[in-house]
Design goal:
The protein is an all-alpha fold and about 200 residues long. About 75% of the residues lie in helices and about 0% in strands. The N and C termini lie far apart (about 45 Å).
């Protein structure tokens, strides 16, 4: 069940990782019961927040995106998250040989998927798109995501805590490189005119 794992990862992650490993879910089950649902939270909340609530700089005018522009961004965001989870899972599986892990690709993708849970949940706050509030809430969520990665790698990948620390650090580095690549691609698209459009209404 999705909500059971979410609750467990937030309040007793060490035990929950063991339960997730015992479950041995397939890639399809992992995506359908967790990734497809939770990764929609920031995309949907961002769409609502930027089209219905809007944001302002100081006491200035409230800015909103057009529905079409916000929908394009929401769909692209959703697809990028799905691809990122699968790609990170593949990278984890590939790197596993270096650290003595013999886990399957589904276990690697499950690790990537469940580790991202706090970042998806914090997406609810995109309903109110104020940068400093989103940053204030997002940074602890990011820190907890890193914590989940470091606690989850030894359990899910079946390696010692010492190797797990090095393994998790390598995964974190790959994740950061992927983030930079997405930001660079976003900047290129915006530079070519494919970007957010402000509503004039």
């Amino acid at each position: 069940m999705v909500l059971n794992h979410v609750w467990g990862l937030l309040f007793h992650p060490a035990e929950e990782w063991k339960d997730i490993r015992k479950e041995r879910c397939t890639i399809g089950k992992c995506f359908c019961s967790h990734v497809l649902i939770l990764s929609a939270i920031p995309a949907v909340a961002g769409y609502i927040g930027t089209t219905q609530v809007g944001w302002s700089y100081g006491a200035g005018e409230v800015h909103k995106l057009t529905a079409q522009s916000a929908m394009q961004i929401a769909i692209l965001t959703y697809l990028v998250m799905l691809v990122a989870v699968f790609s990170l899972g593949k990278a984890i599986h590939w790197m596993g040989q270096t650290y003595g892990s013999k886990q399957t690709l589904p276990a690697s993708i499950a690790l990537a998927a469940y580790t991202a849970t706090p970042l998806w949940l914090v997406g609810f706050f995109f309903l109110y798109p104020v940068l400093w509030i989103n940053m204030l809430i997002g940074l602890p969520a990011l820190a907890y995501t890193v914590y989940l990665l470091y606690t989850g790698v030894p359990v899910m990948m079946g390696v010692t805590k010492e190797r797990g620390f090095l393994f998790a650090s390598a995964v974190l580095a790959v994740g950061l490189v992927m983030l930079v690549a997405v930001l660079a691609a976003t900047a290129l698209l915006w530079g070519m005119g494919v970007g957010p459009e402000l509503s004039t209404i």
